[in-house]
Amino acid sequence: MRSKPVNTTAITGGRVWEGTNAAPIEDGVVVIEDDRITAVGPRGQTPVPADATLIDAAGATVLPGLCDVHVHLSTNSDHRNPVDNSHFRSTASGTAKTLHALRNAQTALSVGFTSLRVMGLRDAGEPTLRNMIDDGLLLGPRLSVAPWWITMTAGHGDLYYPPNHPRGEWDTADGIDQCRKNVRKQVGAGADFIKVMASGGVMSHGDKPEWPNYTVAELAAIVDEAHSFGLPVAAHAHSLEGITRCLDAGVDSIEHGTFIDEEQLVRMKEAGTYLVPTLAIHDWVLLRGERTGAAPDSIAKMRAVAEQRRTSFARAVQLGVNIAMGTDSSGTLCPFGEHARELELYTELGMTAETALRSATYHAAKLMARNDIGSIEVGKLADILVVEGNPLNDVTALRERKNLRTIIKSGRDISHFESEPNVPPLVLSN
Ligand SMILES: [Zn+2]
Description:
Number of strands: 17
Structural class: alpha/beta
Shape: globular
Order of helices and strands: EEEEEEHHEHEEHEHEHEHEHHEHHHEEE
Bound molecules: zinc ion
Helix content: 25-40%
Number of helices: 12
């Protein structure tokens, strides 16, 4: 039997959107006991415990905590001193990376992003940061971590580093055996999922997004090995050939998906493979990349693919492909704290606000293979937002910190928390 809760909270009077396919409950009640949701329903049918701390949500909408499933956490968080991500990766100390990661994580939490999927950087302490947050030793969003990416020699991940930068044992993996071994090393380092670079990139140097990376046999070995450990595989892939190979190999998500065609979108739809669009980084880099540390070759590549990526996204929405919200938040290029911009871009390109919100809640949790978050349902962890107005009609409400009345993570009200702000005000592109 469950022991008597220490802390009980009841959110009353708001429109409760559970994140499932159910219609919102007008004038709903959510009861939280310690870190879990213990009741959800209409007022009148849902008893409020007498000792509960009450949160009045009248005029507001109650949502599950939001998730961003594609972030680069250990990147420069000092917006007064922008640097290129590649430069930061190859010059900052491990300690600096970890402390910047903590700042970025807390910035995300302070705008209602209670979970992040972290795309990996070795020697940055991200698995330790995840554990310390889970253990209640540091305040932050829950993190799903790939300790390091898997990349081939001259692949996207390798070309983030200058040619003369020393490479370690698990910095590249070539051939089936090394790919399998690299997955096993990730597991040993505490992986929640595996990140593989399966095409050239935009922000790396000397390659083209149109290139595939890895053979189907190598990718299949990575997927087979990861799935043996029960871990999903996220594949960075822009090129059509790279995407096709990933789908042949059975990856769980395509990150970016720029040059995908109709045939591969239909395959994704049929297989339930997730697309993680990462549209926000385009806006940011094209708008102000020169001032925020983007290298000129990266800006040129970004310009070349931006329109294609929006077109591919819009078609994926029309076909009903599973979409999980990811921004590619990284350093000064795509700032932490502005994650909800991605949702606005989705709605501008034809997705309904409700579907966009589901991509950042229900679907994000599914992609992270977590059945304890992503919706407001009895038994789940209480990650809950109370947002002014109705973001189910207009997601722009989520971009304004002042609209976030209440932020609850694991049953704890952390609304008072503000990370040190130094992100310049957002200027929107046309
Ligand atoms: Zn990325």
